[in-house]
Amino acid sequence: MSPQGLAGRVADRGRLAGVEIDASLASALAEYLGLLYRWNRRMNLTALSEDDSGLDRLVIEPLVAAQQIPAGTQSVVDIGSGGGSPAVPLKLAMPRLCLWMVESKTRKAAFLREVVRQLRLEDVVVHGCRYQDLRTRQKRLEVADIVTVRAVKMNREALARLRELLRVDGRLFLFQGTRVDNVWSDVPCLRWLGSYPLIESLKSQLVVLERL
Is 202 exposed, middle or buried (CB count within 10 Å of its CB: 0-12, 13-18, 19+)? Predict the structure, then answer.
């Protein structure tokens, strides 16, 4: 499919999900998807297909989730960034964000750096490490207004570590299916704010927690 055709498809899928995507953003998202699809044919960046359900998961879900980002949000840390979703679509939709993408696998981290270069993204850092090792790389944590997580297994220990990345009143965005274990209920200083439907056909939702 041509870049123009892919951009049109992105805009159409957005409208079906109740999200208006202007021509500039649709073009940027199509450029990102084109890169991802080309690299994915050579290495396993994502198991998602190039059909509408894969497109919905990769770029439409993050745009729906962006509606829950509070005004004034400045910094986002994305955990297990892999093929770049939800981090890259969020950055394209909200260019003012300062973004960290954390990815432990070398090839995936290389792809993310290529995305940053090709799409000319500013204020983006790719950390090629596990999120558990960020403490040894950074002088201080508690840097993020929002931490996003998809396709990373969550338990109480993981949530406690991710909490360390958040500022007080910062929010943890968990991209989940409809069946979610309430593993955060006894993690100190984390409060559930709400669960929000994302893509109906995918039965996906966004769980939002706040650091107290």
Answer: middle
